[in-house]
Each structure stands twice: as C-alpha cells, then as structure tokens.
Amino acid sequence: MTRAALLVVLLATTFGAAQAPRVNRVALAAMERTFDRRIQRFDLNDPMDLLGSTRGVYLAGYGAVFTAEVNLVASAVVTPFRPAPSKEEAEKLRQKKAARLAQLEKNMREMMLNLAASLEGLPPEEHIALGVSVFYFSWENCEGLPAQILMQARRQTLLDCLARRASDRTLEAAIRVGEV
What we know:
The protein is of the alpha+beta class. About 45% of the residues lie in helices and about 20% in strands.
C-alpha cells in the first residue's frame, strides 16, 4: 500500500471514529418511549394528552436533547357539539392546568434522573436536556402559565444525585429550569 493510501485510510478511520455518535438511536428511542408512557399513564382517570411522540437527539459535545408537547388536560376539547366553554369552565381549566404544571415538572425531574442512568454512552461531562411545550387553545387564558418548560443538567451531576439518593431540594438545585 502506498503512503498516500495508508494516510487516507488512517484519516478516514480517525474521522470516522470521531463522528460516530456516543449515544445510539436505539438508546434514544427507548427513552422516548419511556417518557411517552410516563405522560400517558400520569392519571388514567383524568389523563394528560401527549401530542405526537417525544423526540430525542444526540448532539456531539453537548449531550442528549428530548422534546415533547402535552395538553395538560385531555378532556378540554372543543367539538361541534361544545364549541366553546363558559367563562367559569375556562377558569376551572386554567386552575387545573396550573396545578398540573407542578406535577409535570416533578415528572420531568424524575425523567432527567432516568435519562442519566439509562444513557450509558453519554459522557458524564455532557448534558441532558428535556423540553416540554404546553398546548393551549386560542380561547384559553394562559397568562402566567408557561408555553414551555426546559430542564437541563450535566449527566454527572444527575448521576451524583442518584448515587446519594438525592432529596427533592438537591435535585432541584442540580437541574436548571427555565420557563418560556
């Protein structure tokens, strides 16, 4: 083999190894399904509605990012037989969604721990991010309620919380939360 050919093979091997994702699609898909089931089983008598499926991607150098969209109250549906709720019904819906936001955030924190434990190929210095968009009808008063909840943390920080069986306070401090 000539020197040039050897150099090409060596460079291809080096760059090919550098480009290979550390977290494979199978691992991401498994975590997508886990989060979907978590949302769908939130309350079987009064469920949240998962709009579409959770999606996860691995960004080399940053980490794993997961996104989902939910309607916090699945029963709040406008139909031809019920075109718009009364003001009282709309206010009850708003209060119910506000109460469920805290439960959704708790679920998301637990999922962050689950992701950290399950994504073994993810380097400890990289991040896990979880973003959930909250669906609102055009007639809803969503003032003061977030359109998105975003959480992120370094995987190692989450693993440390898991190893010490972190309290809710420790976990809250470990995860950066943003609401838009």
